[in-house]
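Deliverable D4.2, example record:
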Amino acid sequence: MGLVEMLTIFKAMNTNQLMNEILTILQTIKNDRNKLEKLYQFVVNEIYEEPGPEEISKKYKKIVSEITDSLLAGLICYFNPGTLEIESIPEFMAQDSEEFELMTGESADNLELKHKNWTNCIEIEPMQSYDSFKVMEYFIGEVRDERMQDKLVKALNMRKPFANFKNLVENSDYRQQWFDFRQKQWEYYVWDIIKTAFDLESK
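Output generated by the structure prediction step:
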């Protein structure tokens, strides 16, 4: 059967028939790793689209942005959904009060922190290293320059991947694109925490 005839038949099929035909083809190559890898690369590069994150509620958009800025600065944030108040403190202050006292000469217990008196409050910490690494990996997929892509991939596979990636991308033409991409990914991270904790909707 020629290619033109095959395309004519495919166009006449409904989605279920197409799916069955595709599954039949997959069965014929299921034990051929080389062909499966080629198929996988084609699907990822030409067909698959990463599902977009849920839109951030307009009511919380500014707050989410402010929390994100604080997290990227190495702070831990406390958020009150009732009053929409935010309180940010240094990460080491929350995790090691003794170190904080040694560095500042003040006891964390003596500080008048608002969030301690909030009835409804959520603590939001910066991303774990694993999640931050994934953000960098995702960004590489946004770079259209193959040479730059290769450099970024190598940076992530070397020792000190975070420092290597930061040095490379922030001294390139992709600097602002990276900042914008990272900001957006962290905002989705923050929104997901808030939305889940308080059972909110994107309105």
